[in-house]
Amino acid sequence: xxxxxxxxxxxxxxxxxxxxxxxxxxxxxxxxxxxxxxxxxxxxxxxxxxxxxxxxxxxxxxxxxxxxxxxxxxxxxxxxxxxxxxxxxxxxxxxxxxxxxxxxxxxxxxxxxxxxxxxxxxxxxxxxxxxxxxxxxxxxxxxxxxxxxxxxxxxxxxxxxxxxxxxxxxxxxxxxxxxxxxxxxxxxxxxxxxxxxxxxxxxxxxxxxxxxxxxxxxxxxxxxxxxxxxxxxxxxxxxxxxxxxxxxxxxxxxxxxxxxxxxxxxxxxxxxxxxxxxxxxxxxxxxxxxxxxxxxxxxxxxxxxxxxxx
Length: 310
What we know:
- The protein is α/β, with parallel strands linked by helices.
- The protein is 48% helix and 9% strand.
- The chain folds into 3 domains: 13-165, 3-Layer(aba) Sandwich (Rossmann fold), CATH 3.40.50.300; 176-249; 264-308.
- The chain has helices spanning 13-27, 44-53, 80-89, 105-114, 141-146, 153-159, 176-186, 196-206, 214-229, 234-249, 256-259, 271-290, 293-300, 304-308, and strands at residues 34-37, 67-71, 94-98, 122-123, 127-129, 132-137, 162-165.
- The strands form 2 sheets. It has a 5-stranded parallel sheet with strand order 2-3-6-1-7, with helices on both faces.
- It is flat and about 65 Å long.
């Protein structure tokens, strides 16, 4: 092991553990697919790039020599030839497929067949591509796993052999003031101008509202620094920046798990099939939300006996 300080050693323990797990998964000799989940701004792409940059120091030089990224929005309806092109570019390297929830069902079906390996090689009839694959998503695992609105069940099963979940400031926020200092340094702003004393208590109090995570910290630092170089009065800078942060700049809360509570099914399903699926999902949703069917039926105004027959 190199004596050089590893890139993640200054991170809080909870983040170090996640990064170490991701590194270990990438070093796993089996060609397993990795699903990297985390809300926007939690550092999914950043940490993958850091691992690539420092791969020799973490003794992971055999993992990949290059890194190639495909955006799920762009690859939404890729055909077999398009996917072959991407895997060819990632051969002997790391292939990162960002925002996997954006990939269409037909494209998922193509990838499902491609991800079946022979001797660690990927491909269709001829298994000729040797690479590590990471899928990233901003959605919660249960949103991807429990419905087929985004990913088919068999596709989710194939890409989630190893799962890493990046913590957000909503989950872990005790070190947010140190993260702000790190953000300030990365912006190359003067160290002596770091508003540590002014922001420390405010950051701790409001960190659970930083739904954009590090992206929100970036905007906070940029706006404070802009006020300073614009010679705005020191007495009003703090109030101005914190007020505008929540009025204008902060990232909205991501509610994919609530907005997509129900999934009807394939367009080929008839009315009766869709209605039965809705009933089952609604029953499960009530049970999860209120703790029991008995409590849920009172809110829904439906008798227990009726729902018991669904």
